[in-house]
Structure formats: structure tokens, C-alpha cells
Specification:
The protein is α/β, with parallel strands linked by helices. It has a 6-stranded mixed beta sheet. Helix 3 packs across helix 4, helix 3 packs parallel to helix 5 and helix 5 packs parallel to helix 6. It is globular, with a radius of gyration of 18 Å. Bound molecules: adenosine-5'-diphosphate. The site of adenosine-5'-diphosphate (ADP) has 11 residues, from strand 2 and helix 1.
Length: 254
């Protein structure tokens, strides 16, 4: 697939953020993982979350995505493609958050989210089927995404029969096939060599931000972060540094 590797970001004046976190607080015993953290993420933005181990990156990602609930504070999700109003994610119960995650969010983690017993196409189709799409309708849509991500001919392989980079492409297809408004990635290239990492990152950015959607990614790799519009650095559960707050016409790549 031809990669469009430049992603100029033009936030429209007055457009509401797709995610707004306010005063997010989360503690584990005496450890404060998030300390009254506030953050707005714009539609179409790619955001890298960096910081030392233990600074709260995963807790922030999981809280924004409705996987974990904060002790206090709020996460407002405004789906630009929905006619419904904003949703206060932190206030939803487990089943409502689970529905929201399945329908509106995509997840690409370092490993482990694909089902090894299923083929590539079944893994992608599964994301649709758990949203109520029939197998017969889901398989062609899954095949289309696999083809778009350069995996034509590999549909029937099980995950263990794919390289690390190919498996991550399947993960990206699975995260996008539902039309995810926001994709959350946690070290998505952490297990890959640098050439494959760069290729998978191109594909991830194109499949999300390249389609006008939003990407929120935890990474420890400055080269990966440099590919995002904006980089925040966490320390002790707070944003210590917020670089690259987008300006109209700014070029995303270094
Ligand atoms: P990072 O992703 O930056 O490494 P985390 O968000 O995983 O940081 O963790 C932030 C802090 O919260 C760390 O001190 C970590 O040990 C603690 N923490 C995170 N999750 C748990 C948990 N489930 N139980 C206890 N402590 C946790």
C-alpha cells in the first residue's frame, strides 16, 4: 500500500475535543498513578504519551479508553460521527463502557489481543461480529481491510504463522474494521525491529489519522513519538511537558 507519510494537522477552530479529561485522579494504595490530570485531545490528532516507567502512561491510556475508572475526575467523549451528545465515560458502568469500547474505540497493543486459534480474517471479522454483524457480512469487510494493509493472500493463516509485523497489521485491521473514532495503542511497535516498526507505524497512522480519526499512543521510543502531531511527557501522574500542540498547517513528521 502506498503510504502517505505526511500528516498535516489542521484543527478546525471551534471544534470540540473528541476526548476531554478533567482532574483525573487514580491511586493504588499510597501510589498516585494519576494526579488531577487534565487533557484535551482533538479530532484527527495523533498524540504520543511518554514518560518514565511508573509515571502513569498506561493508567492514563486505560482511563481515557474506559478500560479503567478513575477515583475522581471525568473523561468526556464526543463522537463527531454520532448524533448523540457527549458521553461521560468515567461515570458509565462496566457493560456500557464495554459497548462503547467495542463500537467506538480501536485497540492496538504490543501483543496478546489477537486470538491465536483463529485465522487472520477471523480475528478481524470478530471485531464486527461482537457488535452484532453476521459472519457472512463481516468476512468480506475483514478481507477488505487485510487487503488494504498489504495482507492479501494471508487471510487463512493463523496468527502464529505470521511475522510480528504481519500480526500487528492484523491487529490494526481488527482495530479499524469497526470504523473506530479513537484508536488507543500501547507500545504498538515495541516488539518489532526498527524497519518493521517504521512500516507498521506508517500503516497505523494512515489507517487512523489518515482517515480523519484520532490516535492516542503510549511509547517509550522518541522516533515513534516524533511521528505524532503532539507529545506529552508524564511524571508522577501529571503532564510535565506538552510539546507540539498543533498549529494550523504544521507538518507532523520530523
Ligand atoms: P507506566 O505505564 O508509565 O509505566 P502505570 O500507569 O502502569 O505507569 O503505573 C503508574 C503507577 O501506578 C506505578 O507506580 C504503578 O506501579 C502503579 N500501578 C499501576 N497499576 C497498578 C495496579 N493495578 N496495582 C497497583 N499499582 C499499580
Amino acid at each position: 500500500m502506498q503510504q502517505n507519510t505526511s500528516h498535516p494537522f489542521h484543527p478546525s477552530a471551534g471544534t470540540a475535543p473528541v476526548l476531554s479529561a478533567r482532574d483525573l485522579t487514580r491511586s493504588f494504595g499510597s501510589t498516585t498513578a494519576l494526579d488531577r490530570l487534565g487533557l484535551d485531545i482533538q479530532v484527527g490528532e495523533s498524540l504520543a504519551i511518554m514518560g518514565p516507567s511508573g509515571s502513569g502512561k498506561s493508567t492514563l491510556l486505560h482511563t481515557l479508553a474506559g478500560i479503567e475508572r478513575p477515583d475522581a475526575g471525568s473523561v468526556l467523549f464526543r463522537d463527531p460521527s454520532a448524533s448523540t451528545g457527549p458521553v461521560e465515560i468515567a461515570a458509565l458502568g462496566e457493560s456500557a463502557r464495554s459497548r462503547l469500547r467495542r463500537g467506538s474505540f480501536g485497540f492496538v497493543f504490543q501483543a496478546g489481543l489477537l486470538i491465536p486459534e483463529l485465522t487472520a480474517i477471523e480475528n478481524v471479522a470478530m471485531a464486527l461480529m461482537i457488535n452484532g454483524v453476521s459472519r457472512a457480512a463481516a468476512l468480506p469487510r475483514a478481507a477488505e481491510w487485510l487487503r488494504a494493509l498489504g495482507l492479501a493472500g494471508m487471510e487463512e493463516r493463523r496468527i502464529g504463522q505470521l511475522s510480528g509485523g504481519q500480526a500487528q497489521r492484523v491487529a490494526i485491521a481488527r482495530a479499524q474494521v469497526t470504523g473506530a473514532t479513537v484508536t488507543f495503542a500501547d507500545e504498538p511497535t515495541g516488539a518489532l525491529d526498527s524497519a518493521t516498526s517504521s512500516e507498521v507505524l506508517d500503516i497505523l497512522i494512515d489507517a487512523t489519522v489518515g482517515r480523519g480519526n484520532t490516535l492516542v499512543m503510549v511509547t517509550h521510543d522518541p522516533q515513534v513519538a516524533a511521528r505524532c502531531h503532539r507529545v506529552i511527557h508524564l511524571l508522577d501522574g501529571r503532564i510535565q511537558h506538552d510539546a507540539g500542540v498543533p498549529t494550523p498547517g504544521a507538518e507532523a513528521r520530523s
